[in-house]
UniProtKB/TrEMBL annotation:
InterPro entries to which the protein is assigned, alphabetical: Flavoprotein-like_sf, FMN_Rdtase-like_dom, NAD(P)H-dep_reductase
Annotated Pfam families: FMN_red
Organism of this sequence: Mycolicibacterium brisbanense
Highest rank taxon of the organism: Bacteria
One GO cellular component term: cytosol
NADPH-dependent FMN reductase-like domain segment(s): 8-114
Name the UniProt record assigns to this protein: NADPH-dependent FMN reductase
GO terms, molecular function: FMN binding; oxidoreductase activity
Length: 151
């Protein structure tokens, strides 16, 4: 899992081959992944810059035997303070997955953080959101095991 500080990478520059150790670690993890879950906050109705910059490093996989994330199951989760940004961001994550030749799961999860879904201790307490996340995980695992994305 790569989150927050793990994604504080230099701005992706396609013309530069220099990579930080953190960028190399991210690219290797994506290269080796059987499935990918990408989650982003919806900032001003869009994918966060931090997440988008990290995803731009997938360009380093363009000449791999598996180009980009070809036939890789791709799960999407967005979280925003309101449905408009949450759903808009989810759509962008799905589009990014398609552009990277990945196979977005049928279900993507948009979470409206304006609603009370977390306990004071940070535990997910919203049953429908938990059920959606469980279904997303099931779809990813089924796709990865069966090779559904490759068909």
């Amino acid at each position: 899992m790569f989150a927050g500080p793990d994604l504080e990478l230099p701005m992706y520059e396609p013309q530069s081959l220099a990579r930080t150790p953190a960028a190399l670690e991210l690219v290797k993890a994506l290269r080796d992944a059987d499935a990918v879950v990408v989650a982003s906050p919806g900032y001003h109705g869009a994918v966060s810059g931090l997440v988008k910059n990290a995803l731009d490093y997938i360009e380093d996989l363009r000449e791999d035997p598996r180009v980009y994330l070809d036939n890789t199951p791709w799960g999407c989760i967005s979280c925003a303070y309101g449905w408009q940004a949450a759903v808009g961001t989810l759509g962008q994550l799905r589009s990014i997955g398609h552009a990277l030749r990945a196979w977005p799961t049928p279900l993507g999860v948009a979470i409206n953080s304006a609603e009370q879904i977390w306990s004071d201790s940070g535990e997910l307490t919203d049953g429908p959101v938990r059920d959606q996340l469980d279904l997303l995980a099931t779809q990813l695992l089924n796709f990865a095991v069966s090779g559904t994305g490759a068909q």
